[in-house]
Amino acid sequence: MFHSKFARRSASTMGAAAVLALTLSACGGNVATSGGGSEQASEFPSGPVTLTIGQDPGGSTDLIGRAIAENASDALGAPMPVVNKPGANGALATQEVANAAPDGQTLILLNASLIAITPLAVSEDEAVTLDDLEIISGISQDDYVLVANAESEYKTVEDIVAADKAFNFATTGVGTGSQLAQALLFKQAGVEGTDVPFDGGSPAMTAILGNQVDFATIQLGEAMPQIEAGTLTPIVTFSEERNQYLPDVPTALEAGYDVPVSQYRAIAAPKDTPEPALEKLREAVSAAFESEEYKTFNEENLFTPHEVDGAQVTEEWTANAAKYKELVEKYDINLGGK
Fold first, then answer.
1. Do 313 and 138 touch, CB atoms closer than 8 A?
2. pLDDT at 29
3. Model-level pTM greater than 0.70?
4. What is the extent of the structural domain holding 221?
């Protein structure tokens, strides 16, 4: 059985944000302004557009957010400061943004795991959904890799199974793809494991490098520098096919385990953000994607672009949620002790 070593943080402790009072015109429910939609579009942005990130600085989500903000600000015509508010796999930050004024001035960088996996680990009241958000764009795919400290004797899944002992493993948080992938692998392999959740990949990396845990499942982009430096040993990846950057490392599927888990990300605004503001945000994010600096960033950090529209993000994340729920029930995995 899998146990969570640390207590879950409640994602329901956020204070209620102020409600933006709107005076509606009698014609079609539009916001009453002297210039109509064109004036509304011209007034956005009215100042800096804050991009909130629900993970610690230094991890993959943080790096992606900063790269987008840096390359989107010129097209947007306003600074895009990045604010880190880690906790509960991004749930606290996401709820805060969802409750913010729907004016396009406050955005959130979403991890798919928060929507597709975290609900399997928390109560219904704590679960975050896409219902209170407007998805601006999908961003990228990031594969997970199971690693051990290079000093460890464990180099393959077969080594782990043959040890016939209990292990501790670091994950990037409760209800994350990292936790789900690791738990599914160990449960299917008949290995007893205790997950040690951290708030993001950076502290999980520190734990495995310091031999505080036996294994860690983290994003490939975060692990690769240490793999190349010879301080971490990659055991398996959790993508459906071998990762192009680790062609000699088998997938969990190849090793005989049904663990197809990857991380996806998207950028979103509060629900009911006006369409003119959303359109400007889409254009700015698209400009960031097309910049050479951002393309180079993706290549250097081993991210696969997945720059799809909001409708496709919603469809894919909903399908993944159903798949993960099926696997958790099939293998009787308890991610959060709910």
1. yes
2. 38
3. yes
4. 143-261
